[in-house]
Amino acid sequence: MLEAVGLKSADQLFESIPSELRLHRDLSVTAPKSEIELIACFEELAAKNKSASRASFLGAGAYSHYSPTVVDHLIQRSEFFTAYTPYQPEISQGTLQVIFEFQTLICQLTGMDVANASMYDGSTALAEAVLMAERITGRTKIVASDAVHPEYMDVVHTYVQHAGIELQRVAFDSATGATLIDSIDGLDEKTAAVVVQSPNFLGCIEELNVLADRAHALGALLIVVVTEAISLGLLRAPGACGADIVVGEGQSFGIPLSFGGPYLGLFATKDKYARQIPGRLVGEAFDKQGRRGFVLTLATREQHIRREKATSNICTNEGLIALAATIYLETMGRRGLQEVARQCAQKAHYLARQISSLEGFSLRFSAPWFNEFVVTAPIAAERILQQLATRRNITGGLALSRYFNDRPNDILVSVTELNSRQQMDDLVSGLVEIVG
Amino acid sequence: MSSSKITKVTSNISHNEALIFERSHPGRIGYRLPALDVDEVALDELVPVDLQRDDDLEGMPEVSEVDVIRHFTRISTWNYSIDLGMYPLGSCTMKYNSRLNEKVARITGFANLHPLSPEEGSQGALQLIYELQQDLIEITGLPGISLQPAAGAHGEMTGVMLIRAFIDARDGKSASANRRTMLIPDSAHGTNPASASLSGFTVKTVRSTAEGYTDLDHLKELCSSGDVAGLMLTNPNTLGLFEINIREICDIVHKAGGLVYMDGANMNALVGVARPGDMGVDVIHLNLHKTFSTPHGGGGPGCGPCCCSAELEPFLPVPRIVKEAETYRLDYGRPQTIGRVKAFFGNFGMMVRALAYIQTHGYDGLREATEAAVLNARYLAAGLTSDFDKPFAGDPMHEVVFTDKRQSRKGVHTLDIAKRLIDYGFHPMTIYFPLIVQGAMLIEPTESVGRAELDQFVEAMKNIAEEARETPQVVIDAPHSTRIGRLDEAAAARKPVLRWRPRSTAKTA
């Protein structure tokens, strides 16, 4: 083939690169590995992740849920997994129809009119929602609850630091764990949006309709972020409570934990804001014979057309993960989602009852909650969690001291349908053993 | 080459399949969970009724497992994919996705690992991230790295924010406030100006020369204003040409007090052959979902590592993954950091796949892949020049741009050629990009295609050129072989229907 293009050696292919800029040595990376060697090497690395095989009560933005076998089977079909972004609709109808169904499912679950084709994850979706609120209102102040996932707020801060947006934080009630609605002093006519998470980072369900009324009375928007998407199977849809933008993390919809990614950013809003939404949208279209199909649409919002005036810089999103979530939601279906949510809530409340009956342990907050709750322990949370790992091979939850310095004894505990009663009873007897 | 007009496809059955919502039957289920194994309490005692859904999830599908399998299998057949054949989208690097990489990413020790697991329980994952970081540092020649960004545009935003933080620290906030211009060539990807804007920069456009390179005189002129924070440059550029004056370009920007950001979308032309760090580039993002073969999955996920010079390193996102003796840990103690760009540590699953790609190729395989990618593009360039207008004389690297100049005289345009290519069994090339080339067709074959298929592609393109001369309407009306014809995108955007609604509540327009 070199001859066919008039060359004698592969080196000549790179003659347009000045010689002093070329690498005249081999890269210092490994020699090629065979399949057998690679698998052995990666198995060895994976085995060092001891936490992956422990019974776990860790949540805090990433949840261990059951994923029906068909999900991982179907996403590995070549036609989905080795396709590009559907820029040529005539040969991308599979991907486009999936996205249209995904958008519909997310609208139904969140109670909103329009959802996009996905964002990177919940944290970046929230950051984009804040920027969108600024565009819609022309206002520059954001009032955000302290009970929003701390890493999400870190990301929001990074995104808005050069946008002239002021981030004001509002406390949560130390007794109930819900955002202190009465103390939203900073909420005024300069406020673009109020940002709350529900269930919030402490597991508590926020009173969204009250927050929506407060925000709307001053012309501000309400942005609601959901990190445990399974809660949507049981809790009132944020859209039905008055939310203007709903963002979330879709990992709970059958996506593996995978040490934090790839996950799935959900983004939904009202019809009137559709042209301000970031990212891709798929819409219905017809050909000359009147046959229904789907296309990428409203592209004039996007970077490849609008460049520096685009609603976002996003291009690649989480397509394959959105497909997995779509298959998950359709397989579990209407009744399955209700059932998973019911089991999460029932099991979590069972565990909470057991732990709170132990000497020295109590539930920290009084607001209603779904499947995550904060336990105050009689000794340091870190110590309890270490002991649970070594003695019982259990990850007992998250020490809140990771994010809140003033909460050394608080543990955030999450329960899903995958936590058996046996695991929960082991956790409880482990606590007795360690503290007793 | 024969003129047998053998195309890659023949017409075949195509299944009809409705939306899942139109297939739904009340009471049908496709799941089974174990019975609840704890004492059940009335739901209303756990969550007050007014906080519960009141719509009974109406509208969510009710289907069986086999319904789901048939639904997705049928609609999947409407997609083109790499596994079917060449996918020559310029600047997209659609290469083969190894199934081995999928297999190792699914090992329980990775797939089931919670991101907030204690460091002691996640040493394998941290080690994997660290090892990939070391390999990408070697490949780019840049010593600082963060794998946190989730995609190319996210890595761009991170890189541009590093530049801003560096200049703020170097010049002081008040002086740096006068340095808010980002230079971007007119051939750049749209994400570049969008990312610059997100980081608070004003964009000024650098012209390209008639030969397709950055116009040095225009660059110098723009740099003389004293307000330049940096240049965002793709290299090889989006015309497929290596910027032969890259050293001088970097010198001009550096002398003007700015930094050089390289868009690494086209790294598939350079891996193992040349390193951005050796060219004077300060910061680059990589696309693990292009160059390092992680699957595109119909639009993502990606992973957009940001690699930078030692000067910029203190500003990288936290946490950093560092090695101390034989232990790996998360380091948050970086006071100058721009902050987090994503929760947790980035798209870890993509990192597993990319490291598997690097290790199965090894140092020689990585270089061979680059050579094959460039050779394939060169071969296509040679094969198509007789029938299509090639606007730039320079030897292309891994992709080559042609135009519809000759065909448009007959009323056949780039879009028509692209659609006709579908009838010959190929996915079209990237069209109408870069924007500076009228009727652009940007073709990137990658290394994942052999000579036989390249020959088929050339033959298909030559046939289309002939059709454009002899029977142009055939091309203009293409595609003829697909399930549906060209869709009315203008009407779709005028009255957007972005979701399905039940018939009873569907809005009547």
Mean pLDDT figure of chain A = 96
Low-confidence stretches of chain A: none
Which chains make the largest contact? Answer: A-B, 195 and 189 residues
* CATH topological fold name of the largest domain in chain A: Aspartate Aminotransferase, domain 2
Please give the radius of gyration of chain B in angstroms. 26 Å
CATH superfamily label of the largest domain in chain A: Type I PLP-dependent aspartate aminotransferase-like (Major domain)
Give the CATH architecture of the largest domain in chain B: 3-Layer(aba) Sandwich
Count of helical regions of chain B: 18
Choose one word for the global shape of chain A. Answer: globular
- Overall, the morphology of chain B is globular
How would a crystallographer describe the biggest sheet of chain A? 7 strands, mixed
| Multimeric state | heterodimer
Order of helices and strands of chain A: HEHHHEHEHEEHEEEEEHHEEHEEEH
Number of helices of chain A: 11
Whole-number tally of structural domains of chain A: 2
Radius of gyration of chain A: 25 Å
Arrangement of strands in the largest sheet of chain B: 1-7-6-5-4-2-3
Give the class of chain B from helix and strand content and strand pairing: alpha/beta
Secondary structure: number of strands of chain A? 15
CATH C-level name of the largest domain in chain A: Alpha Beta
Describe the structure.
The complex is a heterodimer of chains A (436) and B (509). Chain A has 436 residues and is of the alpha/beta class. In chain A, 62% of the residues are buried. Chain A is globular and about 85 Å long. The mean pLDDT of chain A is 96. In chain A, 34% of the residues lie in helices and 14% in strands. In chain A, the strands form four sheets. In chain A, strands 2-8-7-6-5-3-4 form a seven-stranded mixed beta sheet, with helices on both faces. The longest helix of chain A is centred in the last third of the chain and has 38 residues. Chain A has two domains: 115 residues, Aspartate Aminotransferase, domain 1 (Alpha-Beta Complex), CATH 3.90.1150; 260 residues, Type I PLP-dependent aspartate aminotransferase-like (Major domain) (Aspartate Aminotransferase, domain 2, 3-Layer(aba) Sandwich). Chain B is α/β, with parallel strands linked by helices. Chain B folds into three domains: 65 residues, no CATH class; 257 residues, Aspartate Aminotransferase, domain 2 (3-Layer(aba) Sandwich); 121 residues, Alpha-Beta Complex (Aspartate Aminotransferase, domain 1). In chain B, strands 1-7-6-5-4-2-3 form a seven-stranded mixed beta sheet, sandwiched between helices. Chain B has a three-stranded antiparallel beta sheet with strand order 10-12-11, with helices on one face. Chain B is globular. The N and C termini of chain B lie far apart (54 Å). The mean pLDDT of chain B is 95. The chains are: A alpha/beta (436), B alpha/beta (509). At the A-B interface, helix 1, helix 2, helix 3, helix 4 and strand 2 of A face helix 3, helix 4, helix 5, helix 6 and helix 7 of B.
